[in-house]
Amino acid sequence: MSGTYQAHEIRKLADLVAVLAKHEWPVLLVEGIRALPDADRAAVVGTGRLLAERLPGVVFRSGNAEGSDTAFAEGVTAVDPTRMEYVITHEGMGRKRRHADGRSVALDQLAHVGEGPIGEYTVRSSPDLKGLVAAYQARGAKGPVGAKAAYLLRDTLKVIGAPEIGLSPATAGVFYVNEADPLAGGTGHTIRVCMERQVPVVFQVVWRTWR
Q1: Among 21, 29, 56, 141, which residue has the least CB neighbours within 10 Å?
Q2: What is the pTM of this model?
Q3: CATH number of the domain encompassing residue 170
Q4: How far, CA to CA in Å, does 149 sit from each of 50, 117, 142?
């Protein structure tokens, strides 16, 4: 797997600790693809637990999707569910997958999503999504196109945050990616937003060694 999209300054867990320590209120993305292989699930859960144990001052954030997001969150919430933050499209999304003591922030809480920084960074990071963002601006999350746009705008929100609702920007990201194509799909879009915002990210080829 290519390391092109990963932060070269983070190779060891101690490196991640150093990056996060530069921020007063660090937020760590812990997420990835939905199609998490069964054989790797225990490692993802274990890494979520390890990070929560070793990083007591950090808030953990995911999009609450099935697969990698849920596995990382399971590990984090086993240590401290109050430090888990779910960024979702609407309040009903994946309710059963969320720990009751975690924080949930929904995209539809925000006004003029497609026209502000969220829409801007979505298109800047993934220009091919311009039509989807325009559709969301016109009709919101209605219909299949609007629903798809909402998920991708939600992915951008996870990274850039929203000060008007007290959602801090992400500091770094730990991802489980498609090794053949790390920038594919919604996970790939999230990584591109991180790249645009200079948020360092690491993939499983790096964090597997931390356990």
Answers
A1: 56
A2: 0.94
A3: 3.40.50.450
A4: 33, 15, 10
